[in-house]
Write a structure and sequence with these properties.
Helix content is 46%, strand content 21%. By secondary structure, it is of the alpha+beta class. The protein folds into two domains: 141 residues, PAS domain (Beta-Lactamase); 159 residues, Reverse transcriptase/Diguanylate cyclase domain (Alpha-Beta Plaits), CATH 3.30.70.270. The chain has a five-stranded antiparallel sheet. Helix 8 crosses helix 9 and helix 9 packs across helix 10.
Length: 319
């Protein structure tokens, strides 16, 4: 075999390899017209090399932001060094559909792209090479993991029965609100409430119905509070509501409305109408409080004052 034949064979093998590798390969001249377009790009775009050669990249692919691409490319030419773009920064350069069954949840192919300067024999950058990597599997798995972590964080803060905040998370919110008060002296009011004679409901109808009554009350509370209010299940049939930037008078208006709404509502179980009431205590944060626990203890005392004075009423803690 002659040297020339060997060199032609090696060139043929190299071109075959570049055409069949599972990575996109595009070569552009300095006018951003396409010179080389390998099999990966052909398969995902549906455009043959003959269809794209000598044509402007931006005319063929209008999804590519021209200003951004030119800035990226010119920095590669100027510095004569590689540059990269990853899917977290920009999901794709070429908007190719995703046909991979494993990652069928993604509508398009996520891509990492490498920009490589190609030198002429004089040492000047004459062409730009793009390597396009399909990273849809990695991107999709990372997104699913992030979503799962978010869902897990929500579950760790949520009471399973009522879907309100659980006691652990709610008390953390109370501690933060108390620290905010120490710093800024923004008035806030704490509300604690529970279902009157709840044991009678459990004794007469069973604990399953008791749980349904608790869920019914949680729904009523959720409908009455503002988005900025922090609501949680304190335990059993007890609930707590943190009314940020709210004084005692405004808290009285809110709690009276809530009390009347519950009193007038009806929970139906097997065609049986179950009516119930709630007792409420409220306590505005005071400069004399040394801790959030003291604030919580005082609103608990106000709740028991409502219970001791006949139930189905609102009581305000008086220092």
């Amino acid at each position: 075999m002659s040297l020339q034949t060997q060199q032609l064979n090696e060139l043929h093998w190299m071109m075959e390899m570049l055409h069949t590798i599972d990575v996109g390969l595009v070569v552009l001249n300095r006018d951003y017209t396409i010179q080389i377009w390998n099999g990966f790009m052909e398969n995902h775009s549906g455009l043959l090399p003959g269809d794209v050669k000598g044509k402007s990249l931006f005319e063929l692919f209008d999804e590519i932001p021209e200003d951004w691409f030119r800035r990226k490319a010119e920095s590669v030419v100027l510095l004569k060094n590689k540059a990269f773009t990853i899917w977290e920064q920009r999901p794709y350069v070429f908007k190719f559909n995703n046909y991979r069954p494993i990652t069928g949840t993604a509508d398009f192919m996520y891509q990492n792209t490498t920009f490589i300067p190609l030198m002429s024999t004089t040492g000047d950058v004459s062409h730009l090479c793009l390597l396009v990597y399909d990273v849809t599997d990695n991107a999709t798995h990372k997104k699913e993991l992030e979503k799962a972590n978010i869902n897990l964080a929500v579950l760790s803060q949520t009471d399973g029965l009522t879907q309100l905040f659980n006691r652990n998370h709610w008390q953390k919110c109370l501690e933060q609100e108390f620290k905010r008060y120490i710093r800024n002296h923004h008035t806030s009011t704490l509300v604690m409430l529970d279902i009157d004679k709840f044991k009678v409901v459990n004794d007469n109808y069973g604990h399953k119905v008791g749980d349904d009554v608790i869920k019914h009350l949680a729904k009523v509370i959720h409908e009455q509070v503002r988005e900025t209010d922090i609501t949680g299940r304190y335990g059993g049939e007890e609930f707590v509501i943190l009314l940020a930037d709210t004084n005692t008078n405004d808290a009285m208006i809110f709690t009276e409305r809530l009390r009347k709404t519950v009193e007038e509502s009806v929970f139906i179980y097997n065609d049986i109408e179950i009516k119930y009431t709630i007792s409420i205590g409220i306590a505005e944060v005071l400069p004399t409080y040394k801790s959030a626990s003291q604030w919580l203890e005082n609103v608990d005392n106000a709740l028991y004052e409502s219970k001791n004075n006949g139930r189905n009423r609102v009581s305000v803690y008086k220092a």
